[in-house]
Amino acid sequence: MTLPVLSNLTSPAQMAPALLAEWFRPGASTTAHHVDNLFMVISVICTFFFVLIIALMLLFMWKYRARPGHREEHTSHHNNALEITWSVIPLILAIWIFFQGFVGYIAMRNAPANAYEIEVIAQKWSWSFYYPKEGITSAELHVPKDTPIKLILSSTDVIHSLYIPAFRVKMDCVPGRYNELWFEATVASDKVEDGKWDNDDQTENVYSDGSATYKDAAGVDGYDLFCTEYCGTGHSSMITKCVVYDAAGFEQWKKTASDPRAQGTPLEVGEKLYKRRGCAQCHSIDGTDNPGAGGPSFKGHYGEMVEFTNAEPHKMDAEYIRESILNPQAKIRKGYKPIMPTFQGQLNEDEIFALRQYIRSLNEEQPEDWAPKEGEEEGDTAESSEPAETSGAADAEEASDAEGAADAPEEPASDEESTQSET
Amino acid sequence: MIAQTDGANFSTPSGTRIVNPQGPSYLTGGGIMSWIFTLDHKRIGVMYLVGVLTAFLLGGVLALLVRTELLTPEVDFFTNFVQQTGEEPNIAAAKDAYNVAFTLHGAVMVFLFIIPSIPAALGNFVLPMMLGAKDVAFPRLNLASFHLWVVGALFFMTALLTTGLDTGWTFYTPYSTTTNGPVIAATLGVFILGFSSIFTGINFVVTVNTMRPKGMTWFRMPLMLWALYATAIIQVLATPVLAITVLLLTVEKALGVGIFDPALGGDPVLYQHFFWFYSHPAVYIMILPAMGVISEVIPVYARKHIFGYTFIAYSSIAIALLGFLVWGHHMFTSGQSNLATVIFSFLTFSVSIPSAIKVFNWLATLYKGNIHYNASMTYALAFMFLFTIGGLTGLYLGSLATVVHLHDTYFVVSHFHYVMMGGTLVAFLSALHHWWPKMFGKMYNELWANIAALLVFVGFNVTFFPQFILGTQGMPRRYASYKPEFEGLHALSTFGSYLLGAGLTLAALVLVHSLFRGRKAPDNPWGAATLEWKCCSPPTHHNFEVDPLMGSPYVYDNFVEDPNGDGYYEVLPDYKRSGVGAPDEQPAQT
């Protein structure tokens, strides 16, 4: 193809006038320049035509304004040569813009064969990123830089859309089908100089909607990740981060992430899960219940007998909390809507345990520490995170099976599915 | 009921002055029932006007509520409208209230205001008169269309206001099939409103085809009629698809038949195809009549023949036809195949050309004119400015590489407001000021109407231009709360919306004031050459007591300004009677 392709040009920052550069924030992926270059060029074309049309309009408005002594002059009613010219020139420009957009789009849609795959499960109103090789589920998207990443998008309820402005990527998460999206990040998120993409400078701007999504995610350096398809009450807080590491940092993260026990006490892990996994959007921790659109508070109900619309009254205990997380529609509290999504396969037993300890702590119960795993010393977590480091899929799966079976001795025999995401 | 003429045509030095017979106004006579069951297209038009303006007021108040919430990043304003359950504000319920508000704003503005605004309200009034006819082809169908609109609107509003619809005006599945809102009632409302639109469309197609006066060939019609005709074609062809789509949605929600819901074996993207197959052409239902208005208004106030009549006429038809082929550009990120995406992008660019042609033609019409800055012209020039921005920003959204970033952000919000509001609403206001003296027989205060127009223009730009920047920086649509870094631009936008609201309020006050205190309107206050100005203001029940003299709709030479400042009167130059005039300007014998 001999046609010039715009997207091969250099970085947009060099092409753009200062104003446009400020307007259009810096990209951080290998495909961002496809978007940025074309945006700049369309802006130049638009500015040219806008200035031309408006300047002529203003000139005519002044020069031919009605005033004493001024009369209209008869000019021809049409001029085919002129009219064809101003039809054909925009047509050629439009086709050229189409072509440039097409070239960039194809590059942005065709993932390299060696891309690292991550599954994205969107649901009202949180994101889950599942790393099949390592068996990690995370509330933020963690990726290594300079590596093509392929996201496989799905939704468990309504349509959501994953959007990372810094990478200029967006794709809908449609229930019933898998969509794909790929990108390759070029700048580690803790290296971002232009602070506009992350929240660090806004930590004191506590979000008043109780979701704490922004506030909490601000604890992580990362690029904003938005939901851009309207999905109901919590749409505007369905926001998380994409954290980009260098290769060593990503290995380190995988090591920590694969084991909740490595991340702190059950109470700390539970609190973090509460904020990051969307619990906070419906369940308060100050004893305020939100009937109707929300959910009961985590505070003030532990150990109570609670009533349901579709089941016998039951005590709010370990078993009930676990069931509410994994199969929330089994028992619907009186006065509330059945809107809670399931976290089956998204939270492992350690995480459910941690969440429960967090709820207990809110109700002035003494939270328990991690129960020792079989064959381990209490609190020793080094062993469990090792298999992930090897990143051999077979090893990781074996390890996860073994631990899953041995895990969470307090819990009743867990469902088969619930062991899926464990390590 | 025969109107008395207040004088015969008489000779002046430049020719024979034509005097329109005067008669009783169509507005007077008869009680309330004579309005409700009227077959007079003008009364139906006026009732439509009252209806759509009421809807616009409601939609506008909702827009201001939405903008007020967005003044600050946190959800705070809407907490005033919801029940408190504890000490802390109930944020979840406030967010739901916000979602209901933006849904209502969109649904009311689209289905109750923009779609019927120019075609049904103003089109009903002027279309038969532009043809020199006494009424539309099917007056009873016309009345039925209005009654259906009222029923649909009441149904729609009751459903929306009592229980809270929160799906967005697009009713995307599976959200709409799983939410607790009154989706079935609302979609049935849309269904009924759709039939109202179809009836109007059929009526206009038949009227234009069969009722043109002798001598008015297709290419001697005013361009407003081309635009309304093209619109009517879309209404007749596309609206049934919407009707089928909302019926399927109702069937799925009520009976659990799997069509769109993946849990039942359906496909949510199929809904989007169906929905946009109507709703994209519907965008042209909204904008084409606006283009027709501008093609009428600019020549009148510039005192110039429209430039490139044929290109403008054909471009209306081209837009109507090409508009059916581009619906897939609403689904560039939905996961439709890359091939479909590329084809839809290409077709989208093709539809931009006819719009560009029109702008250039309007511009050329101003050249060497004698431009009168009446309020109607001010709005028309504002339209050219705003529509140019709206059209050009469409290039970013048609182009595949850039749309991936911009889709579902404020860039899109701003783009369609520039086209729908900066385009259609401003053209509607232009048309309203243009035809107001004919409709109500009263002149409004030009100075205050112009001040209102400037306020609307400035307020509009302050409201929506910042939203382009917000969208480019990644601010998603339909967010009740947003990241603090976007606060400055959002606040600017909100202040702009108050300015815009003030401008629109002033425009309304000026017009209402004219009804009570306005000077009596002359028959032809602007010196326009189309036939609706060749009867008295306001017209009689039968519009024309004698058949009007058919001339070119864009030749103003025969219209002479009244020395007493009482509008224009038409003279029939004596030389023309001897057959010297150019053939296309020669008045045809009626």
TrEMBL record, chain A:
Cytochrome oxidase subunit II transmembrane region profile domain span: 16-112
UniProt KW Transcription regulation keyword: no
EC assignment: 7.1.1.9
Cytochrome c domain mapped to chain residues: 265-363
Topology with respect to the bilayer: Multi-pass membrane protein
Reactions that this protein is recorded to catalyse: 4 Fe(II)-[cytochrome c] + O2 + 8 H(+)(in) = 4 Fe(III)-[cytochrome c] + 2 H2O + 4 H(+)(out)
Gene Ontology annotations for the cellular component aspect, listed alphabetically: plasma membrane
Transmembrane residue ranges: 38-62, 83-108
A Pfam match: COX2
UniProt cofactor(s): Cu cation
Residues covered by the Cytochrome oxidase subunit II copper A binding domain: 113-256
GO molecular function, one term: cytochrome-c oxidase activity
Keywords noted in UniProt: Copper, Electron transport, Heme, Iron, Membrane, Metal-binding, Oxidoreductase, Respiratory chain, Translocase, Transmembrane, Transmembrane helix, Transport
Protein known as: Cytochrome c oxidase subunit 2
Organism (species): Posidoniimonas polymericola
UniProtKB/TrEMBL annotation, chain B:
Cytochrome oxidase subunit I profile domain mapped to chain residues: 35-551
Keyword hit for Transport: yes
GO CC terms of this entry: membrane
ATP-binding as UniProt keyword: no
Gene Ontology biological process: aerobic respiration; electron transport coupled proton transport; respiratory electron transport chain
EC numbers for this chain: 1.9.3.1
Superkingdom to which the source organism belongs: Bacteria
Topology term for the membrane: Multi-pass membrane protein
Protein keywords: Electron transport, Heme, Iron, Membrane, Metal-binding, Oxidoreductase, Respiratory chain, Transmembrane, Transmembrane helix, Transport
Subcellular location: Membrane
Residue ranges of the TM segments: 46-66, 108-131, 143-163, 183-206, 226-250, 270-294, 306-327, 339-364, 376-396, 416-435, 447-469, 489-512
Major localization class: membrane
Record-linked InterPro entries: Cyt_c_oxase-like_su1_dom, Cyt_c_oxase-like_su1_sf, Cyt_C_Oxase_1, Cyt_c_Oxase_su1_BS
Pfam families reported for this sequence: COX1
Single GO term (MF): heme binding
Family of this protein: Belongs to the heme-copper respiratory oxidase family.
Protein's recorded name: Cytochrome c oxidase subunit 1
